[in-house]
Q: What sequence folds into this?
């Protein structure tokens, strides 16, 4: 597969999370690590950094496989992607499932599979049962460790995933790490001491989300922070993009958000449109949301769907 993204050169404020993930994978015989959170929080980059750690390389040698699930729409394509990553040749008279099963039975040296952006498969409305069944079979191979990155509150399947970060998933960057990242990317085009106040205000507006910071920092190479603040006030997420060609989840915050929105049905869309008018969400939503929207049908179900998609 040629869809594996490049590991970001500038990746700050995540050292403790990288170490935590690497320590877990290294010290557990069969590891199930879930890297969870909303789009743009840096889940893919974290997974890449973790499997690049020396302790992880020492344990798995060259048997670390990165599988980008956002281009794999169903379980059949996932199996095909795994066959490609594992370089399992076609065998006459055998189906793909049988070839993969035979390979994992015969090759019992420890390996780690990174299932990146797994929400594409897990929240697909086509074949959840098929994905669930495949995962359960995969879990039974004791030499196969799995790292999954996905939007949502929990890892897939009926298994106790080790969640990296907090119970809510990967947190935003600290203010200091966000500032360091901004200046590392933007460069020394201006006097840092004079611009820190405007930069800090801008980064706070962006909620210290790594993707947003990276994209705004690119713009800061030519545009002063004060002007970027005004652009943000006028255009919000529409200014958080890189380039003018085809955009993706890695080059546009709006594209990243849209991937989550695409997983929703009509009721969830309506609820999200209401919540989006509120600057800080709904305080104590379990009690207050029903009071705010007494006539909203399927309210609890819609909330659950938004949480599942990290929205």
A:
């Amino acid at each position: 597969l040629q869809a594996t993204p490049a590991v970001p050169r500038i990746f700050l404020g995540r050292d403790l999370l990288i170490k935590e993930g690497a320590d877990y994978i290294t010290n557990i015989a069969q590891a199930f690590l879930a890297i969870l959170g909303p789009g743009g929080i840096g889940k893919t980059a974290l997974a890449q950094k973790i499997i690049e750690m020396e302790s992880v390389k020492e344990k798995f040698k060259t048997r670390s496989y990165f599988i980008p699930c956002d281009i794999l729409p169903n379980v059949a394509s996932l199996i095909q992607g795994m066959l490609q990553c594992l370089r399992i040749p076609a065998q006459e008279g055998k189906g793909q499932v049988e070839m993969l099963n035979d390979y994992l039975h015969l090759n019992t040296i420890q390996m780690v599979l990174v299932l990146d952006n797994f929400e594409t498969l897990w929240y697909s409305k086509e074949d959840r049962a098929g994905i669930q069944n495949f995962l359960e079979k995969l879990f039974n191979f004791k030499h196969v460790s799995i790292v999954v990155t996905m939007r949502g509150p929990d890892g897939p399947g009926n298994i106790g995933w080790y969640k990296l970060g907090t119970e809510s998933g990967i947190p935003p960057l600290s203010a200091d790490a966000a500032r360091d990242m901004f200046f590392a990317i933007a460069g020394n085009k201006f006097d840092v001491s004079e611009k820190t106040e405007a930069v800090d205000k801008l980064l706070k507006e962006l909620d210290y989300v790594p993707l947003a910071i990276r994209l705004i920092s690119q713009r800061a190479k030519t545009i002063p922070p004060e002007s970027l603040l005004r652009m943000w006030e006028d255009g919000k997420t529409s200014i958080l993009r890189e380039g003018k060609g085809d955009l993706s989840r890695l080059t546009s915050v709006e594209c990243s958000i849209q991937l989550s929105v695409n997983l929703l049905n009509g009721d969830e869309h309506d609820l999200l449109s209401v919540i989006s008018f509120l600057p800080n969400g709904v305080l104590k939503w379990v009690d207050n949301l029903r009071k705010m929207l007494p006539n909203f049908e399927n309210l609890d179900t819609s909330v659950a769907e938004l949480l599942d998609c990290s929205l």
